[in-house]
Amino acid sequence: INRFVLEGQMIEVAWTIVPAIILIFIAMPSLRLLYLMDEIHEPTLTLKVIGHQWYWSYEYSDFIKVEFDSYMTPQDSEDKSTFRLLDTDNHTVLPMNSFIRIIVTAADVLHSWTVPSLGVKTDATPGRLNQCSFLMNRPGLFYGQCSEICGANHSFMPIVVESVNTNTFINWVSSVSESSDDWK
Q: In 10 A of CB 126, how many CB atoms?
């Protein structure tokens, strides 16, 4: 009996090395694409998101300082056109066709700012700034929620991102900054 037939060392080496080489050829372009997708050198707008128990705070600091809190719309709301447990009292308004950088942190416990239809999921960690970026190419409302189990009411931390054209966004920023000046 031939010892090479019984042991099969050559075939074992071949079926181990050939798939490893194939995986390396697949991984190299993928790693390059992942790196390029994560880097935005000059974003048009930076939005800071702060997770609290159990609401989100937003800061637009590229312009006049615009800050607001976003709470879930009460369940006993008379407005039947809203999505139950997904709508907020203040929408996050962002311009479409602009590169947007989101800086995410938390004030108390771990949260996760997640908007699946935008392909965004970034953990909010106290004492740490995490960043992600995206581009919205159509107007509309994009819904999300905290996807980290951050406490008893973590499912009551909805996110609503409203994508609008640039002129509407500029008008919104100026109206919000004027109304916040009236409060001070």
A: 13
Amino acid of residue 10: M
Please list the rounded mean pLDDT of every run of 10 residues in the chain (184 residues): 65 91 93 79 90 92 86 76 82 93 93 93 94 92 90 85 95 82 49
Beta strands in 28-98 (DSSP E): 45-52, 55-60, 66-70, 92-95
CA-CA distance, 102 to 49, in Å (whole number)?
Answer: 7
| Distance from the Cα of residue 87 to its chain's centroid | 17
Contact between 101 and 61 under an 8 Å Cβ cutoff? The reply is: no
In angstroms, the CA 162 to CA 87 distance is 11
**What does pTM read for this prediction?**
0.76
- 22 sits in which H/E element: helix 9-38
Residues 6+ apart with CB under 8 A from 173: 60, 63, 64, 66
3-state secondary structure of 164: strand
